[in-house]
Amino acid sequence: MQIVVAGQGYVGLPLAVRAAEVSHRVVGYDVDLDRVKRLIAGDSYVEDVASARLRAVLDSGAYSATADAAALAGFDIAVITVPTPLRDGVPDLTYIETCARTLGEHLRPGATVVLESTTYPGTTEELLLPILEKASGLKGGLDFLVGFSPERIAPGNVRWSFEGTPKLVSGIDARSLNVIKGFYDGIFQTTVPVSGPKVAEMAKLIENVFRLVNISLVNEMAMLAKPLGVSVWEAIDAAATKPFGFMRFTPGPGVGGHCLPVDPLFLSWKVQQELGLPFRFVELADEVNRHMPDYVVRRLAEALDKRGVPLNGSRVLLLGLTYKINATDLRESPSARVAELLIDLGAEVRGAEPNIPEGDDTKLNVPLVDASAEEIAAADAVVLLMDHARFDLAMIEKNAPYVLDCRNRLSGPNVETL
Ligand code: SAJ
C-alpha cells in the first residue's frame, strides 16, 4: 500500500523504515528540511534505525523522504507521528493540527489516517477528525477511516524490539479498526485492538503515569532514607527480591526525556479542563521529580562544606548529561537544571558526555570535557548523573576527590550516594 508517515523522528522513522521493509511504498514526510536532506542521504539520526537499513529501503525505492506536501497525494494510510510538547504546562497540539490540515488536503475516499502522537483522551475524535473532514470535504467513517495507535518506542531497549512490542490499535468504527489492525498486523508481531481511540489514548497515558509516579516515589524515598540513616538503594534491591507485586525503580537526579515529564501532564491538564479537578498523583509526582536537581545541589553543597570547600568558586564535573543511561538525547535532561543551579551558586561547572558527538555542545549550558583522569582529579567534586556504559567507573572512584553518585554505582571513602 501507499503509506505516508508524517513526522520522521524517533517514532516516525522506525515505523516508516519497517513499513518499507515489509513491502509498502512509504513516503516519510517531515517539515524539517535538514532532517529530510539527511534522510535522502541515507544518514539516520535515530539511534534505533541504522543508516544501512535506511539506505537499503532508499535504494529499493520502497522509502522516500520529502518536505513537499504534494508528495502525499494518493496515500492509502497516513500515520501522524508529530511531537506533542507542553508549552508552559499546556498541551501544544499545533503540530497535529497543521499535519491534519495538510493530510486533509490530500485525503481521498477510502483512505485511512492514524494518530500515534501521545495526547489526551478525545484528541482523535474531537480534534483530528473534524480537521480532516473540513480540509477534505469528506465524512469520517463514511468516506475515510480514522483511529489511534500509541507508540511504545523505548530508545535503546535491547530486550524488546520495535516489531516485538505489542501495539494497541483502535478505530472510530469497526471498519476503521479493521483496516488499521490489518496494517499494523503486517508490521508488529502482536496487535491489541481496543474499543475506541479514547481507550488507546488513555492506555498510553496510564503507561507513562505509572512510571512517573513510581519513579517519584523512590525519589522521595531517597530524600527521606538519607536522614533516617537507611540506604534506599539496598532497601530497593531487597524489595526487588519479591517475585510478585513489585516493579523496581531507582532514584535519580530527576526525570527527563520526551515522554515522562510531559505526557502525564496532558492527562492532568485535561482533567483540570474538563472536570475542574486536580490530578493530584501526577502533580505531586512531577513536583517531586522536578525537585531532584535542587536536592542533588543541596547534597553537593553540604559535602563540599564538610570538606571546607565553599560551593562558590568550586570546580564541579558533571558526568552524564543526557536524559537517561546510554541515551544520546538531551531533551528535558535534569543535568541542565543541576548545572544551572550550580552556576547560579558560583560554581565553575564542566560536563562530560561520551554519547554526544564532539562539538555538539551547543545545546548545553556547560563546556564539554573528556571524562579523563586529569579532569576528574582536578575537580573539587564530581557528580555521576548518568552511569553510561562508556564511563570507566573504577578510574572515577580512584581519581575523584569526592563523588556524589546519583546511580549507586561507585564505592569508596570519597563516594556518597544520593
Ligand atoms: N528514571 C529514573 N528511575 C527509574 C527509571 C527511569 O530516574 O527507575 C529516569 C530516567 O533516568 C529518565 C526518565 O526517568 O530520565 C525516563 O526514563 P524511562 O526509562 O521512562 O525512559 P523513556 O523516557 O525513554 O521512556 C520510554 C517510554 N516509552 C514510551 O513512552 C513509548 C517508557 O514507556 C518505556 O518504559 C521506557 O522508554 C523504557 O522502558 O525504556
Which key features would you list for this structure?
single chain, 418 residues, alpha/beta, Rossmann fold, N-(1-d-carboxylethyl)-l-norvaline Dehydrogenase, domain 2, 3 domains, six-stranded parallel beta sheet, five-stranded parallel beta sheet, 40% helix, globular, binds ligand SAJ
Strand and helix layout:
Elements: E1 2-6, H1 12-21, E2 25-29, H2 33-40, H3 51-60, E3 63-66, E4 77-80, E5 86-87, E6 90-91, H4 94-104, E7 112-115, H5 123-136, E8 145-148, E9 167-169, H6 174-185, E10 191-193, H7 197-228, H8 232-239, H9 263-275, H10 280-306, E11 315-319, H11 334-344, E12 348-352, H12 373-378, E13 381-384, H13 393-399, E14 403-405, E15 415-417
Parallel strand pairs: 1-2, 1-4, 2-3, 4-7, 7-8, 9-10, 11-12, 11-13, 13-14, 14-15
Antiparallel strand pairs: 5-6
Helix pairs in contact: 4-5, 7-9, 7-10, 9-10, 10-11
The structure holds ligand SAJ.
Question: Can you walk me through this structure?
Answer:
- The chain is an alpha/beta fold.
- It folds into three domains: 2-195, Rossmann fold (3-Layer(aba) Sandwich), CATH 3.40.50; 204-289, N-(1-d-carboxylethyl)-l-norvaline Dehydrogenase, domain 2 (Orthogonal Bundle), CATH 1.10.1040.10; 291-417, Rossmann fold.
- Helix content is 40%, strand content 13%.
- It is built from 13 helices and 15 strands.
- The chain has helices at residues 12-21, 33-40, 51-60, 94-104, 123-136, 174-185, 197-228, 232-239, 263-275, 280-306, 334-344, 373-378, 393-399; strands at 2-6, 25-29, 63-66, 77-80, 86-87, 90-91, 112-115, 145-148, 167-169, 191-193, 315-319, 348-352, 381-384, 403-405, 415-417.
- Strands 3-2-1-4-7-8 form a six-stranded parallel beta sheet, with helices on both faces.
- Helix 10 (280-306) packs across helix 11.
- It starts with a strand and ends with a strand.
- The model has no long low-confidence stretch (mean pLDDT 95).
- The chain binds ligand SAJ.
- Ligand SAJ binds at residues 151-155, 157, 207-208, 211, 215, 249-250, 252, 255-257, 259-260, 323-324.
